[in-house]
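Q: I have four molecules that I believe assemble together. Could you output structure tokens for the complex as a whole instead of separate predictions?
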Amino acid sequence: MDKTIIVEKKEYSLKKPILITGLPGIGLVGQVAARYLIKKMKGVKVAEIYSPHFPHQVLMGKKGLLRMLKNSIYKVPTPKRDLLVIVGDVQAITSVGQYEVADAILEYVYEKGVRRVITIGGYSTGKMEKERKVFGSANNKRVMEEFKKKGIVFGETKGAIIGVAGLLPGLARLRKMDGVCIMGETHGNYVDSTSAKNVLEKLSEILEFKIDIGDLEKEAKTREKVIRKIEGEIEQQMTGSPKDITYIR
Amino acid sequence: MDKTIIVEKKEYSLKKPILITGLPGIGLVGQVAARYLIKKMKGVKVAEIYSPHFPHQVLMGKKGLLRMLKNSIYKVPTPKRDLLVIVGDVQAITSVGQYEVADAILEYVYEKGVRRVITIGGYSTGKMEKERKVFGSANNKRVMEEFKKKGIVFGETKGAIIGVAGLLPGLARLRKMDGVCIMGETHGNYVDSTSAKNVLEKLSEILEFKIDIGDLEKEAKTREKVIRKIEGEIEQQMTGSPKDITYIR
Amino acid sequence: MDKTIIVEKKEYSLKKPILITGLPGIGLVGQVAARYLIKKMKGVKVAEIYSPHFPHQVLMGKKGLLRMLKNSIYKVPTPKRDLLVIVGDVQAITSVGQYEVADAILEYVYEKGVRRVITIGGYSTGKMEKERKVFGSANNKRVMEEFKKKGIVFGETKGAIIGVAGLLPGLARLRKMDGVCIMGETHGNYVDSTSAKNVLEKLSEILEFKIDIGDLEKEAKTREKVIRKIEGEIEQQMTGSPKDITYIR
Amino acid sequence: MDKTIIVEKKEYSLKKPILITGLPGIGLVGQVAARYLIKKMKGVKVAEIYSPHFPHQVLMGKKGLLRMLKNSIYKVPTPKRDLLVIVGDVQAITSVGQYEVADAILEYVYEKGVRRVITIGGYSTGKMEKERKVFGSANNKRVMEEFKKKGIVFGETKGAIIGVAGLLPGLARLRKMDGVCIMGETHGNYVDSTSAKNVLEKLSEILEFKIDIGDLEKEAKTREKVIRKIEGEIEQQMTGSPKDITYIR
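A: Yes, here they are, computed for all four components at once.
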């Protein structure tokens, strides 16, 4: 195996498909959102992605089975269109590898009829804002205007988007495909289910499908409490009077 | 040489062959077991594996000869089947290299009729258990059940298997080949001949051949004493009363 | 995408073309000079260079659009000839990548009729000379003599030229193309618009075109003041009498 | 340029050719010996080796010319046979690169009729022996016995030979070519012309040609004095009585 390969698990057809990706990244926003989307919308796995650019290990499961590190592609049906949703264990570990995997994905979904790519990521602010925005950055103006109307906030982010979440919409443009990266505002140090929920709500609005967000909301509340507690303790330590501090390292 | 190559040393045929690998890894469990297997069962070298992904050095032998770093494939005859056993100096040094070498091996043995791959490794626990288990992780349920019946312990390991020992059964699945990684429980900091012996005993049971384990047992006892002595000293140092300690760093 | 690709943005023809490059490097001399050249001479973008050897990220712009990291090729018309000017965000991040990108550029421009390559860089001296020279290093004597007559200083630099600025003239020789690296003398720690101006003036002389250098001169003066102020402070700190120093790290 | 290339500078024929390499390595023994051999025996450059696995830089010469990093192949005539001698600025910077360059060299010289490869290196002992041996390690017994008769010392070295000096004889064996690495005993921290001289004397004996070793001998004596002085000072510092030491770091 000297190239990234995509192995189809079943034959399938698609209705006006759009690609969505939620791979490991900042605050795991994309991963949490995409996995929830697949679960609640009864996604069916249609293909698996293996790459020599992934780490050279296999994972051992609890039941005694091992498996390759991989990304998986699910078909998720919605009233207006089918979604192809990519989730996975890892991203490629080198720059050359990232380009190869992203290109292999685009090649595959293009042939499946996909002409629009939405990647989900987190946008790290280092703060725990109560209201967290959903930012966007697009590979052309037309699609940006379309997403802006649905409340995605454009032009407030800066810097670079690293990895698949950025390369996919970037490379998509070379194939004249629309591409948008949707980023949930997040602290960056924590798994942020609240941000994932925000992204998913926006996504369902944009793509006109309904999704029961209840379980994610519950999980988000629990996580939120824990994070706020940790953040509170950190702040206290940073601003606390000297006599309270016995040992700092 | 820009790809891994497998050089045949002689023509040979195989009876219902199974692939076994014991390359350098945790506790050298796999390496010790596989080398002993080859030696006691009178294995014959049939092929050598060279790769640009191995370190760029040659080894100087005591008698004035130099040789490439390599992996070697031995044919080891047993009553029920022939084994192809791979041992070697090194594993590939990059992730891409590991995938390439593992794939080249699978390609080669598949054409030789191999449909089942057993890799031997160590499973590090950081402890010197008196009774050390032989764990397994398989690439499908059927082969797992089969090995479980022979006393291999499944479902008690977690995490990842790094390198060839994991990639081979992982990649084997993509070719619909059975794959199991058998791991001897081991401390992890020492060469563990006891664990290698345990693995080899199980392996001979599973594959229905007899092997004189005597020499390995002897070696294991010697090593065991040395290791227990070192461990004892470490423990004493860690728990000894302050006055016993003259210098700790 | 497993190779560097050059995407043409429009059909175009060229009159006796010469390649000029100004990619990120020492003092940003090349980048500042080349960008100014394109702007003032009304260059038109004709092609874009993408490479898996660039970092795996996309840049987010202020207006909500994202784009790939890239190098761009502009056609810049001058009275005697057309220039192909390459500017860009980055250089390749590995040695193999650098060779590939440089070779892809040469291949492309050779087919466009280019037989002479001029790369612009900075030559770091660690000093802020009032009068800064324009150095050169050439891939053959004939072109060196030609540039020497125009006041480019040869034979006063030593060491290596790293990256595209060196590889292009170096590799050009293998295709029997003339190649010169023109280096503006510079401190090395600062963006040096003065040095860029010096280079550009020499370049316009050599290539016989006129360019309004006014804006660059203005920018250079502003930068110069700031740099001299910083350098002055550093020097004062280094030579100040002990009593003046409260804390040095 | 995505592969190592060998560019012929002229047409040439060879009489019973043998390959000799002296690339940068321990004590520069190989490089000093090979360069001296080329100079004294009036070698003629016949080919140049370029590789994307070399560092991505060009060298600036004193006279204003730049050139690629490269290895060069010289034809060196001797009474009994022609030698192809490889010297150069660098070796490849990755393992994969080292294998590729070594293989490209073998491929090239094999087609030129070369069936025997002698690489020259240094063998580091960390000591400045007065009499320094010339060690050898060979890729087969026959050639080892042949060289042993000429006074090359086999079987007293251990460990690995890193880089081209090892890979060439190692890979040569896969092509059924004889290969020997000749190593001058050396301290390892200094350029060792004495060791280079020793190697060259042995080489001329083995290959039955005469070479005026005078200039190298002179250079060796000068270097030797300097090195012994440095070593003497180091030793004094290490063993000097405490009161002599004002500051040790």
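A: One point stands out. The radius of gyration of chain A is 19 Å.
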